[in-house]
Amino acid sequence: MNISRIIGVAMATAMLAACDAQPGLDPIVAHEIFVAKSDPDAALAEKVARSLGIDAGTLPYGVEVTAKGGRVELWGAVDSSVARKRFELIAAGVVGVRAVENHIRIDPGA
Fold first, then answer.
1. pLDDT digits (tens, 9 = 90+) for 15-37
2. What's the number of domains the chain is made of?
């Protein structure tokens, strides 16, 4: 068996176990719990992205979020310093974020 297939089967099994452990648990919530336990950095980056509205596709900007050990980095371009600061403040307010490095550049054409 190839390694990616083994990992896929293991992940599916873990997700099903999470659902079985908590009857009535929404599969999306079960997935979030699984991701948070398996890769806390990815879970934190995802949580910050949701707070910023990135996952909903509502942002007109191309902003990306990365996280490592509670330190969140914001990357991309926005059209004003106000938008840049707003992203930083929202990210800093997310539970689990210890520090924010704002690498967002200001591009009036963004």
1. 655 555 566 777 777 766 776 67
2. 2
